Amino acid sequence: MNKSSPSNAAETKEAAYPGTGIYIHFPFCTKRCPYCSFFSLTDPSLKPLYHELLLAEIERTSEYFPDLFPSVDTIYLGGGTPSLMPVFAVDEVLTSIRCLFDFGLEWKDLEITLEANPEHLETGYLRELRSVGVNRLSIGAQRFDDAKLKLLGRAHSVKETFEGYENAREAGFENISLDFIAGIQNDTPDAVEKELRAIKELAPQHVSAYLLEIKDGTDFSGIDERKFPDDYLTAKIYLKIIDVLSGYGYEQYEISNFARAGYRSKHNLKYWSGMPWLGLGASAASCSLNARWVHPQSIEEYRDFVISPDFRIPPAQAEAEPQKLAEEEFFMSMRKTEGVDLQKFAEKWGFDPTEGKESLIDVYIEEKLLIRGGRKIRLTPGGFLLSNELLSEFIS
Ligand code: SF4
After folding, report:
1. How confident is the model at residue 232 (pLDDT cuts 50, 70, 90)?
2. CA of 37 to the centre of ligand 1 (A)
3. Is 396 a residue whose pLDDT tops 70?
4. Right CATH number for 6-271 from 3.40.50.300, 3.30.450.20, 3.20.20.70, 3.90.1150.10?
5. What one-character DSSP code corresponds to residue 87?
6. Pairing relation of β-strands 277-280 and 20-26?
């Protein structure tokens, strides 16, 4: 690719914001989807308690800023189903953060994302979300075929996705991402290609296209695996998604993420760029400049953590061993299409994870799974399909 190509220019301009991203976990859903392994709750009577705990956690955590985290520049409300949050609750959470934390940008310039299910996107609700500061939506479209949505146990129809999306535009959302899940029962590259035409029609700024992972404990884990595409077909589906979305003008910048120029997810880039993020709420993960930790995955344990007289950040169970933090950062950064600058990595962490692995790298390059250019290495689309296996060779 030519150095002055628009794609390279966008890459430079779209480096991750340097500050902290705050992630808020809202775990409530109307029902559990059969493939989902996130921490979620279906009892709405717990919402008021959870909201109070969240506000208490925000306040208690703010005492540790900015020593552990640089100033905030993105906020992400994820779940669960954050579009089940009433606007007053979103407002209270955002106002509390705004009052108690330091910011690297003016409030209006922060990227503030809310994950939403299509069936909740009514214009009045969306306008109010805009008015309290939310300026980016991540809509769980998942598929553009009602039969496929049914297989996924989703509560919405394709028609509702289109209506919700139009309502969001009408309410003033100019930055919208759509989620798409591939690799479900009886999936084929042709079916995926056909459904992705809806992306062309809707023209969101960003697309997250995930391959289904069947996790233990989910309803999908009890289904005969022969109903799902095998590895070969899954690879073809993945390559088809890359091909179709790039044909529509989306640049792939991470294994599962594609964006129009200027619209990469600034928040999610922090996860893949060694930037700090603070997770608030049950099950939320955090990564400060020198530690990582995950909150408990139950309301009771989360409550005990928030109200404990021994509350501190990082909590006692945080992982703070530099070697492990470095390996995790390498693993996450290799998810980006631009890969890892090994010199910068070594300057930060004091070692090069590829040192002594030259012959392995040569094999991967020969097999077209990896590309090495100067001080950078990156995975190819084929390499992304095997990324867990490949990268574990560098961090074991
Ligand atoms: S709506 Fe999302 S978080 Fe809730 S159960 Fe379904 S996939 Fe999981």
Report:
1. very high
2. 8
3. no
4. 3.20.20.70
5. H
6. parallel
